[in-house]
Fold this sequence. Notes:
Elements: E1 2-6, H1 8-14, E2 24-25, E3 35-39, H2 41-50, H3 57-68
Antiparallel strand pairs: 1-3, 2-3
Amino acid sequence: MVRIGITPAALDAIVDTLPLGSVGFERDPDAKGELQIWLDAAVVDRLAAMRRPGESFSDVILRLFQLTGTTGGGGPSGY
């Protein structure tokens, strides 16, 4: 498991798509307003591969959901 920080909006977008027990997270945001979550290393690697210059993990997540036309409750396959 790998810990990353994402915005509450990004967590809201993916939370319903993740299998029960596949992610851990801290309820309180950190100093930057991000939530710390723990994901499988393979998922983090895929997110990192999709990052564009200057993008955060949150940016990637929200971009993918915008492209697929989904919000919370459905997302790109493979997650």
